[in-house]
Here is the input.
Amino acid sequence: MVHYFKTLLGFAVIGSLHLSGWAQSDWPKAKPVTLVVAFAPGASTDIVARSLTQKLNELTGGNFIVENKGGAGGNIATSQVKRSTPDGYTILVHSVAFAVNPSLYADAGYDALKDFVPVALGPKTPNIFTVNTSVAAKTLPELVEAAKKAPFNYASSGIGTTTHLSMERLKTAAKIDIVHVPYQPAAAINAVVAGHTQIASTSMPPAVPMIKSGKLKALAVTSATRSPLLPDVPSITEFGYKEFDDYTWFGFMAPAGTPPDVVNKLNVALNRAMASADVVERFAQLGMASSPNTTIEFNNFLKAEVPKWAAVVKSSGAKVD
Here is the structure.
């Protein structure tokens, strides 16, 4: 946000009315706005971006397109957008990994709080702990007690993901040792269904169909409250783990120096798009929900998320070189 206010001050000094008027009248119509998605097609981040592009076109009169730039846990896309011209025509669409990676990687290539202007927080979904139907435990406390007596392993969506770190937080709090087996996001839930691991810690979208079809047992969601999508599944806080409120979330960021009026215009458009009935329904089917938020609110959210996950990365010992 330092860059954000420096930009605002710069406009005032060199002729704010002219520059601001240009941005307001022309953006985003001068050329296509590229939403650079930090992961491959079909990933949850990609689904979020593509769910909103047509709405953004309608609301702004612009042409929003999606470009997938996967790799290095999202760092390749992030570095690309960081280096792009800060004119509002290149926007990063990322997940919570945006806040995790600077502490997870020896060199993620960016500073989450300095190199970008937060535009809007998108939808979020709790992580969820599930077990293979052969596991006797029917509740999270029963699983904790079983893990103290017998070896277990768990699948997650990869080293350093919040699905990995949420389980590591539980292990620390419950004083248990469960072996981590990282998978690609789409493969993690299939691993526990097939019995390759007894437990899975994943985001909700891939887990919900398996739970509803009876192929998995759900033990707890990692948010402070229950999820409306699975109201019968307890929140982890109901079992005494009071510090938990872990989500997989998605966000929109612009390179530092992007004009404030453009950022605000995109924030308004994104909030309106996410509030439209068909998008709300689409997100709900995936176990996601969004809430209206300002750029300042998203910035404050990031200021809390970055150190929170840095502490979890440190305590878990997770690292990616």
Observations:
- Residues 1-24 have pLDDT under 50 and may be disordered.
- The chain is about 45% helix and 20% strand.
- Residues 223 and 246 are 5 Å apart (CA to CA).
